[in-house]
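Journal club prep — side note

Before the paper discussion, L.F. wants everyone to see what a predicted structure for a comparable chain looks like in token form. Sequence:
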Amino acid sequence: FPRYNHPEKLLETRRGRCGEWANCFTLLCRALGLEARYIWDSTDHVWTEVYSQSQHRWLHCDPCENTCDKPLLYEVGWGKKLSYILAFSKDQVVDVTWRYSCKHPGVLSRRTQIQETWLLPTLNGLNATRQQSLGAERKQQLLQRLLVELVEFISPKTPTSGELGGRGSGSLAWRVARGESGPSDTKGDGQERVFIPSESEKQNKLFHICYNVTKNSYFRLSNGQETIPGWQRGAWRTENMYRKEENDWQMVCFF
């Protein structure tokens, strides 16, 4: 299908991948009076960040994955090897890579395309150009936000349950080929899952496994209470299945 960029055209065609989703979602946020910016990841993904006036910080929002405030999703859940992630708005360009990583040494080892001593001055130059027509109050506001971000970037991060799963959009074969199916796809080939009875299960002629929807784990009771995280690891074959956590309602649903 055609890869249009203009959000007005995308609202008409209603077809696209992450780039189209991000373009439309960013437009809608700005139309509602929210400050939003476009996030570009050099490992081939894009999404949006929205500034929260109540929390005084930028929130990760991925409309393609229907996910909000789960910045470690890509590195931990999808298994991405991140290197450069940049945020673009009409007033500012920011290197936000560190918001999306809890494995900074690995990221640093992969940031070899350009010198760090060149990147920061270049971004500062872009910001100076973008902000030259802004008033002193707005410039001060952007500076204060940047300082808050820098503190966030160096603060330790721990993945949450919503950041542990693989990519939900796209076919399984496509996600596996991109290496974004997540840790739940341990076979790595996108084929059907098969449970093989252990020797004790064969002797007892008993195979007992349960799935806990809230913990998103299987419990193989007949094999020493073995725990298997991730609903995909117990599914023979799936198509267009998605597990959604509603944190506000404390509920989990499957679609």
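L.F.'s comment for the group: The chain has eight helices and eleven strands. Keep this in mind when we get to the figures.
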